[in-house]
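Appendix B. Raw example, untouched.
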Amino acid sequence: MHLLNLICRKIGGFFKNAAGFPNFVVASLQQRRRRFAFNAHEAERLDRIRNPSKYLGKS
């Protein structure tokens, strides 16, 4: 009986993880998008610091 209970729990856990997988994919894509946006912003900020003459008169 204990073995059957353990098997049912493992199968249930597998289906729970499978059901949550799409949410995981969406969250990781959003995080990736935010990281790329941050990196682009940071690159521009560093470029402004290194080359201020390129940005004179621009806001």
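End of appendix B.
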